[in-house]
User: Fold these one by one.
Assistant:
Number 1:
Amino acid sequence: MREQRPIGVFGGTFDPVHLGHLRLAEEAADQLGLSEVRWIPAGQPQHRDAPQSAPTRRLQMVQLATAGNPRFTVDSAEAEREEASYTVPTLERLRQKLGVTQPLLLLLGADAYAGLPTWHRWQEVFSLAHIAVAHRPGFAVEAAALPEALAQEHLQRQQPTAAALGTSAAGLVTTFAMTPLAISATQIRMLLAEGRSLRYLLPQPVIDYIHLHNLYRSSDGS
Ligand code: ATP
């Protein structure tokens, strides 16, 4: 197959988006030679607790955070839909649009990767995309630390470098070391609830947006 630069697919609740997410996407683009990182804020994810902020709010925060980065695009399809978000149907939609040969690279932090076997139709991910797993402080990426079914897939599919990712469309796994940032959206929501500063944990326009709309303070979650 002719080599094509992979497109990164970065899903998440982004409740709210923070510098851990942004560095993950930026370093993935650099280290893995991506032509683009497509951010996909989830609507109503099924495999975790409901996000506190409405999908449109989380989408707007991602749009603010990624504005001005020519390698970042935002896909609003999941956030704009009423029904539950699942990664496999989203990848199927992208595949249909981008064709069968375009390498797609699903970007996941180590914690999200370890949780992959809880996803709807999780094994089908491998026929639709490669996976790149970012190191995250406090979470292991070695096969020994993964759930058994995933460890087997991991051992068969892992690549020591990103070199092979552009030569096939899907099915490989690689890991990459990003600048370790122990930032989480949970921590940010807790700081806000306690009225503490968010500075330098997320982009200032996102902080301003959170304050403007009084997010993460009221119980209605809008
Ligand atoms: P929460 O604290 O609400 O669970 P989160 O900070 O983990 O949120 P998500 O939106 O759930 O953020 O994460 C989207 C993706 O980004 C996931 O694949 C997750 O593993 C990854 N990720 C989030 N924060 C980091 C970080 N600090 N370092 C590496 N990966 C991260």
Number 2:
Amino acid sequence: MDWVEDAKRRAAVEAVNSEVKDGLIIGLGSGSTVKYAIEEIGRRIRGAELRVLSVPSSYQSLLLAVKCGIPTTTLHEHPTVDLTIDGADQIDPNLNLIKGMGGALTREKILAASSRKLIIVADERKLVDHLGGGQPLPIEILPFAEPFVTAKIREMGGKPCLREIRAGAPYITDNGNFILDAGFGIIENPKKLNEELKMIPGVVETGLFVGMVQSAYIGMRTSVKKLVCNKLKST
Ligand code: 5RP
């Protein structure tokens, strides 16, 4: 295992062991780092250390939760989630995020907004000074609206690109939608850009998560650091 996989695993295990308590309703984000958190929750359930219910954010996480023996529920049964653990593609010093390279951003944002606490697990490569540099912003859109939304984003100065699974075959989200990966360069005001994009008819959700995160467990090369309210604390 290279250091990145080890860093992701350490961050996820530390987050689960610090944050996940008996009886909680847990939101499960998606991606290769959250995978380690799901596996750790499953391990503790099988060891009879823990009883929780989970709300997965994607079919990927649902299938893994079932495989790991984690009982699942829905927002219909539990509209308020105690704690969501999710990954991120970029994390700025204010704990604002770009998410969605795994394609689950809409359900992830709904879960985040339904949660009392949103905890991020990631490796140190995800830390940035400003969102957007070298990283497109994933935007989930209605397929019908793709030409219109593409033109609007170009007018805003963005460079949208339809995500494909292979040439000519659009990537389809768990909600049956398309994703535009839009380059904006450095995003000076993530809140404003999110609001502007959400005003475009046909935009379902953006991968900008602004002011939603309580803390982030960051897997460094040899340690895990907990990032809370702009302060990096060793754990
Ligand atoms: C999926 C996401 C993921 O959380 C994000 O892409 C990070 O994934 P990984 O842990 O594999 O780097 O937003 O929509």
